[in-house]
Batch of 4 targets.
Target 1
Amino acid sequence: ARPCPQDHVNRQFVAECPNALWVSDFTYVSTWQGFVYVAFIVDVFARFIVGWK
């Protein structure tokens, strides 16, 4: 088994300025043609989605 990746932020999702810490998440969405996956990049300071695909 592969070792788990290191937790570089020690589960402290707090940033003191914009663009200092980005986190990612993904989900799936139902569409008329089936399910699609959507990935998001979020700026922790602003709690704003800075990118998605």
Target 2
Amino acid sequence: MKNVTFLAAVVVALATTAARANTAYIKYISPGPCCGVAGFCVDFDNNGSWDKKYNNNVYTGEYKFAFDASKSSAEAGLLLDDPFYAWCIDVDQNAPTHWALYDITDLEKAPVNGWGVLMGTTRADRVRELFGRFIGDVNTKEEGEAFAASLWEIVYEKSAVYDLDDGTLRMNGLDGNAKNISEGWLGQLTGDTAYFDYDVFALTNGTYQDFALTSPGYGGQPIPEPVTMMGMVLGVGGLAAYLRKRRPRPDRPGERGTQ
């Protein structure tokens, strides 16, 4: 009976917010346990003109965020915890150190910033595969740097070859073996959908940095638009299946039990 009551409450919450955008009210707290410092430079025109240069002064890894469910859509409450962790996919902007409203967005439509670089299907699928294959291997600062560098390479590299020393995006100052780990991971990405076992989506904001993260729930399907959300609201059985399907995210060193 308690389960039925809980499901009914969730359905009512979803119904009241289905007509508005899926949004999350978040604030950057700090680098996560698996985060180091490195540098990069980006040549968006592939003409040797480096539009942005950062030298060993960029947090490279997972970031920790606060989440205010009371000012967010009901869907955000199902996707995010307080606190939660996410990965930068927008190298031109800063994380929000004050509370900011973000859109819950499909990877294909991110990042949204002044450079106008959208992932599209191919890059988004590579990001999904990266999460599916390797997010469970991220347990140290070095591995966090490798994962972040891999994400940036996927999102921004214009050539067909992933190389952290050459091409559109170049990394420098990665700790220890992070560069080799990253290039090893990138070399294993083949587009195999069997590894799309995490629901990876984006949080986007036109003013602040955009992020990619995972949450159990939608089975790799696109994030529902408000109208589609209503269909989900009407299917209590489907919602029950959704809740049964939820699985925990990988633990973070030093942060176990907080997600």
Target 3
Amino acid sequence: MCSFSSIIKYLLFHFHLIFITFFISPFDPVNKNANTEPLPAKEDKDDDDDEKGGEGGPKPMPPFSSMFILSTTNPFRRACHYICTLRYFEMCILLVIAMSSIALAAEDPVWPESPRNNVLRYFDYVFTGVFTFEMLIKMVDLGLVLHQGSYFRDLWNILDFIVVSGALVAFAFTSKGKDISTIKSLRVLRVLRPLKTIKRLPKLKAVFDCVVNSLKNVLNILIVYLLFMFIFAVVAVQLFKGRFFYCTDESKEFERDCRGEYLVYEHDNEVKAQKREWKKYDFHYDNVAWALLTLFTVSTGEGWPQVLKHSVDATYENRGPSPGYRMEMSIFYVVYFVVFPFFFVNIFVALIIITFQEQGDKMMEDYSLEKNERACIDFAINARPLTRHMPQNKLSFQYRMWEFVVSPPFEYTIMAMIALNTVVLMMKYDGASETYEAVLANLNIVFTSLFSMECVLKIIAFGVLNYFKDAWNIFDCVTVLGSITDILVTELGVRSRI
């Protein structure tokens, strides 16, 4: 505790320096003889902006006394306000929070008196001292609770107070062997405080409002989700109740035969006798509650193939599974996946998108232009003309070649070749004859030659530089070069084997 007292003295020393600096600094006193006539409307609006802190300025001091004794002109309170509004003060606190969280994660839970925990305990003293210092100066700056903008009228400040108080109480009861240091993990929640700066950034504020409003609207969709889940659960109970049982001895199908013992061969060729047991799978549909849990597990996409296998293998009640006994039961899971993982997930995504658009429209209500008008103007500003590379001399060979490659019949022919090439690629299968594979290889060479000819014709028509200005032409050229390389490597490999 000696080190802790030294740290407190160090913090108090620097705090006194700041206090003395503010005490001797020339504050602007209130001029009682100043003109008190109201300013024009525009200046009143500027004053209102100043009282709110402006667009990017620091938050002003509340115009109320703090703790009934510290006025707005009190040097001690103004010093605290100066510290709280320093540019890097909040960043330093967040850094200390991160370091404290790392220290909490680095503690040894098995050996409390380990050397590592002893070192971390001194760091904990420092962190708690910093958090206590922050809490006290904010209480002095903002006041406690009675006026608007006071310390305890902010939920984040209440959380800070609980966390710091818990840490101080933990220090007080350390000697009695009571470990309540886990309450310090709540300090990690303080990293959410930068969310208060979102109101200064309109775009981030729109995103935050979108998330909050989406959570409000999710309730209606969640009710529909649960209703559909309940319907599927009832259907699943009717289809699979009492059919997810099995005997540990796979040779026995009925419960009446699942008795006695059976032999199991271990990996080291040892024979071991085990008792036959009639068991139930971990996930089943014997009642609606378990059906809801099983269907929710299936909707997560984790482990559902095993549940599908059990459903397909299910036979009758009080009878063991038979592989592929009812393949038609897979239709139930196909429909379920279409309704829940696909349909409802997209509904939630669409809700967030729609809410975000509504928030954006609310922010634009004060503008004179409507949404469609703004979209038209944005399109006109960002629109760029399409570049068309056409030879100037219409009597040249290059122009005739250009006219040929841009004609609709040429484009349709290329599209037909792409479709046929795709079909040829789909015709490969394992175990094909050599003649069949040779035909496919020759067709691949033919299509590669045709696509290569297309690239050559377009290079002649557009020119080398203009051809490679188009990203799609670059993609076509790379694809053709890759196909040619594949053919050469394949042919060389075949000849080397011969």
Target 4
Amino acid sequence: MSADLLGKSALVTGASRGIGFAVAAELLGRGADVVISARKAEPLEEAAEQLRGLGHPGKVVAVAGNSGDATARAAQVAAAVEQFGSLDVLINNTGINPVYGSLMDADLEAVRKIFDVNVVAALGYVQEAYRAWMGEHGGAVVNVASVAGLRSTNVIAAYGASKAALIRLTEELAWQLGPTIRVNAVAPGVVKTKFADALYSADEEAAAAFYPMKRLGSPEDVASLIGFLASENAAWITGTTVRVDGGLLATGGI
């Protein structure tokens, strides 16, 4: 793996497992120091210990806190600057989806919570990173969206609407924060994580059959793309949402 993030530091939210954990490992492998965050302290610290055990030279700091809490967001951003001297990369990975099915049956408080976590909190992290470091020094932001934000689906409609908003937010931020801060998003298909378990666990083979690659994604599939977008190898890429979906949308399905 290239050490193209050597001397850089990153904050990865929602990093106690799944895609966030894989992204933290990817960035460490590329030479970065990493702050990881998640809501629950114990599994987050366990994840930090696993990451430290990978043998990469970069340091790992765990700062627990709710992404919807402005004080927690500020503390997580400050930890990177205080511990590592900078915050060069922000990965907005935190997301929730407590609502399945038709929007006509959706509880509006639950929908509001989805947007608060998946969209508003992501903007909050960017604001904190901008104030603490990136506004003066520049950096790279990658938002974890979803193919559900690119094509409608009745199964996870509220979640998809929030991810569509995150994709639009990515474009707005790229325009407002350029040229020194790049802002991109990734749109995964179904990835084999606990978060997406309800979408494939009943029959993984049947779920994978919709994909040209005939398999579901792994957290590492997404993490490697994010590592690239966070690095200077992607220096002329901003305002873009890159699909990492095993070809799902090419089939016309979701």
